[in-house]
Amino acid sequence: MTFRHNQLAVAIAGVVVAAVGCVVIARLEFSNLRAAFETDARIVHRLLSQRTAQHDAVMAMLVLLQPDNHAAHPEQRIPSVYPQILNVQQRKVESTWPDAALRSAEDESRHNRRAAVASVDFANGRYQLVQAAILNSYAAQIDLRGMVPWEEWPMPRETSPVRVLLQYNGQQFVLQPGHGHRGWWQFDFRKRLAADSQPFVVVAVRNVGGADLPWIKMLGWTLLTAAALAALLALERQRAKRRRAEELLRLGQVARLNTLGELAAGMAHELNQPLTALLANTQAARRLLDDDPPELDTAREAMQRAAEQARRAADVVGRLRRIVERPDVAGQLQPVSLEAAVGNALYLLEPELQRLAVKPAVNSAAVSVLAEPVALEQIIHNLLINALQALAQVPVGERKLILAMTAANHKGVLTVRDSGPGIAADVLPRLFEPFFTTREGGLGLGLSLCESLAAGMGGALTAAAHMPRGAAFTLQLPLVPSA
Amino acid sequence: MNSPLSPLIHLIDDDTAVRDGLALLIGTVGLRVQTWANPQEFMAQFDRDSIGAIVLDVRMPGISGLAVLDQLITEGVDQPVIILTGHGTVELCRRAFKSGAAEFLEKPVDDQQLLDALQAAVQQHVRSRERNRDDRDARQRYAQLSEREREVLGLIVAGLTNKEIGRALDVSPRTVETHRANLFAKLDAKSLAQLILRYAALVEDPV
């Protein structure tokens, strides 16, 4: 699967995750709103039911407390205790209600043995409650708005989106207007008050629309998803970049080896021809001189030709030397962070480090040296490769790789120490010679090249034994002169 | 000192100095050398009947020494071929021998090694030419035999005595004796052993 396919897949997955998340958030919010609405509506129902039950109790009490003393009128004091009861009328045993509605309500009350409503006038927010009794009957005028215990009301009356009203026989009285906007969904609550005497129905309605959705949470979730997505893609891109870098590095090494192989083959042919002629001529000359009598003239000619061929071989070597002359790195020096260069080299070799279970101990320091960045990285890379190859020869537990950076005497110094088998004493002086190698199949050019590069940048590369065992390579480069 | 009948070495190398040097060296042991700078020219012109050997450089412009070797073998050239190379890999060596090279030497080549190889190659060539001549001779003589003589020869090769041959062919031992004498005369055989050695292979179907 290519990176581009990956990108598309991740993008699609991201959109799906964001959408599903938003739906879940919306549903959660929706059910929260519904629960809150139902709780509020139940509280409203309970409060109003309590009030109507209270009215029943007041009326029943009035009947029970009827004094013998007709002059005392306890009903007159009721409105001062219950503000929603505007007034209470009394019908004496001997008299009749002037109002037919009250009469019929009293009949109903008598029949049902409880209070009954009369002249329900929701338009004006009034109704009357009539209680029949054997002696005097009573009728109370009740104010709907006054009977609501606003101090216990569960919602802010002016701003709540819930519309609350009472219904009775086609009439309705709005207790709370509800700042309802048009909505996509509607919550609905409808329940008769608990007191049978005042069978009003509490209705609560709430519209839920786009404005009620948790847009901020949804936006947050979407952004979070997008961020995670971007991070994933960035990680993927970084991984791809790294793979590419490793690939390039490997290719570069192969290409270099190929070039060297070609060079060696060409050099072998170019040198072999004159050497073959030279050898053939000298050996022929010796044979001619051995003849009896010696063929001096031919032998002399053969020696002359041998000399010419020796010169030809020397020319080949000279030409080769000019071809592979040291690259001039001195002209491209720039300030380079030694720390960053080491980090980079370690980063590139991380798979190799993991494979060998080597944890490099890096003693970092902010050292800025004058160097050609690619050459510096090549040197560090080579030193690390050498160290790792040495460490591969010792047991895992004994593998130590220590890198240290210091600045001293106008020089930035990097030391790479390993706990590998070390360098034999007789090998040490020849370590930086071209084509000198201790490795099977090695070209013997790595360290030689590194030394040339270091010298070309005005620095030096040296090797020493690392105690108790292993090798220590020290790279010195000029520090960036402080301004 | 080089007589026209002495073996002729063909030396093919595009490098003049190498050519001259090797030619001089080979000449010191009395072998005649003909040098060629161009493989195509060599293929077109060299004397295929001469006794000798061919020394071939692998790396030449235009055509590789191995390709020349293949061409020589395809054409049935019987001179042994010695391959010279500056870059002797195992693979190259294997291919050379598989193609029929007599020897494979690395440049710069040591005189003794080259001259020994050449001597061996020349001897091998002379022997193979002689063997070919003998084969041709034997075939001609065999062709002169009569039907009955061939039958007798077949039975002799099979190891039967005169008496047994007579019984097998239903003739008298004396007649067998006569055929036998004729056989030895016609085939120019000095002994029974020589007769069998030379002609056993030609007897098609001993009874």
Structural commentary:
Chain A is 48% helix and 20% strand. Chain A has 9 helices and 15 strands. Chain A has helices spanning 3-64, 78-81, 100-112, 215-290, 296-323, 338-348, 350-355, 373-391, 446-456, and strands at 85-91, 116-121, 126-131, 137-143, 163-168, 171-176, 185-192, 201-208, 334-337, 361-363, 368-371, 401-408, 411-418, 460-465, 471-478. In chain A, strands 10-12-13-15-14 form a 5-stranded mixed β-sheet. In chain A, strand 12 (401-408) and strand 13 form a beta hairpin. In chain B, helix 1 (16-27) links the parallel strand 1 (8-12) and strand 2 (32-36). Helix content of chain B is 55%, strand content 12%. Chain B starts with 7 loop residues before the first strand and ends in an 8-residue tail after the last helix. Chain B has 9 helices and 5 strands; from the N terminus they run βαβαβαβαβααααα. The mean pLDDT of chain B is 87. In chain B, strands 2-1-3-4-5 form a 5-stranded parallel β-sheet, sandwiched between helices. The longest helix of chain B is centred in the middle third of the chain and has 33 residues, at 111-143. Chain B is elongated and about 75 Å long. The chains are: A alpha+beta (483), B alpha/beta (207). Chains A and B meet through helix 4 and helix 5 of A and helix 1 of B.
SSE layout and pairing:
The complex is a heterodimer of chains A (483) and B (207).
Chain A: H1 3-64, H2 78-81, E1 85-91, H3 100-112, E2 116-121, E3 126-131, E4 137-143, E5 163-168, E6 171-176, E7 185-192, E8 201-208, H4 215-290, H5 296-323, E9 334-337, H6 338-348, H7 350-355, E10 361-363, E11 368-371, H8 373-391, E12 401-408, E13 411-418, H9 446-456, E14 460-465, E15 471-478
Parallel strand pairs in A: 10-12
Antiparallel strand pairs in A: 1-4, 2-3, 3-4, 5-6, 5-8, 7-8, 9-11, 12-13, 13-15, 14-15
Helix pairs in contact in A: 1-4, 4-5, 6-8, 8-9
Chain B: E1 8-12, H1 16-27, E2 32-36, H2 39-45, E3 52-57, H3 65-74, E4 81-85, H4 90-99, E5 103-106, H5 111-143, H6 147-157, H7 162-169, H8 173-187, H9 192-199
Parallel strand pairs in B: 1-2, 1-3, 3-4, 4-5
